[in-house]
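User: My collaborator sent over this chain with a note saying "see what the structure looks like." That's all I know about it. Can you take a look?
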Amino acid sequence: MAPHLLLVLRILFFLTGVSYAQSVSTVSHVSVKQGGSITIPCLYDQRYRNNVKYWCRGYNWLSCSTVVRTDHPKTSGKTSISDDINQRVFTVTMTSLSPSDSDYYWCIVERKSKGDDGVRLQISVTPGTPELYVDQQQMTEVVGGSVTVLCCYSSQGNRGRWCKIGGSCVAVGHSGALDGTFVKLVQEESRTTNGYVLMVTMSGLMMENTGWYWCEKGDIQMPVHITVNQPTTTQSTTTISPSVTNRDNVVTNENTDEKHQSWLEFLFIPLSLLVVLIAVTLVTLKMLRKHKDKKAKDQPPNTTVQSSDSEQNITYSTDPLPDDAVTYSTVVTKNKIPLPDDAVTYSTVVTKNKTQPNAAEPDDVVYSTVAQHQR
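Assistant: Without extra context I'll predict from the sequence alone. Here is the result:
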């Protein structure tokens, strides 16, 4: 009975064009938030490197409709396909997802002489928080470094796992190795959401670790691609998740230093001009003061005595007079009888000096006799 049943299954697979010996693997079920995007990896056997691959939508193989192909078309609407023959994986990316995109899809390898080979998966698009999600599906590190992936999920439920597509898995509470790289899983309650976080850390990365992995929680998976590069002089071997915060801090500090430097450069020029202006002003004031002091020193002394008599103002001068000096005297008379406009007042000045009659000494007294004559 069993051989007959096996023969019937083979005939059915041949008629439907599907190979019963599947050499294609992928995730089984992914949950995506409405408006988001998802990249699905489809790993295939080495012998399918040069075959055409395509993405088909529908629950049944016979009724599914082809969306994109690696030969033509590679892009259709919001769905695109690409093939990496070195990694033996073709990827399908769907963007701007809506609830109407929720359906079953197929990763298929076309075979001309035999039935096509493929595997089915389910995509669920939800308007709320997905059952399992990651912040980013693409991560990059260098050889010898480490990478941390945070897989978030809404309920604790089953124990989580970290798997390499087409390879082995490591479960929560266990430490193991994937392709020679140490893997550690820690499950804890999320501090920012009401759900939980599965923290996956891969350390001691090697070039062979480049490839597709996925977080698994129950029957939901979320694929993540890790790229491992050779280190350069500008790269460091640090964990990706912590380094995001460190890198942001470094950029902030650099920007702050640049702002401080620019402010100092901006203020340096006006401050320099202000210092120069103050110096020039001080020098100018000092020179003006010296010139004023010198001018006052060269001027001859002059002593003036003014009488306090209210009736008569008499001014005595003790300045020495040369021989040919001429003295002008303005006389104001006080007389009850007014003088005519043409009246002339004569003043005679006589100097008294016993030794030198023609020269006046500083202590000599000059007497002036005033006579009024009326015409």
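A starting point for your reply to your collaborator: Confidence is low (pLDDT under 50) at residues 1-21, 236-260, 303-314, 352-360.
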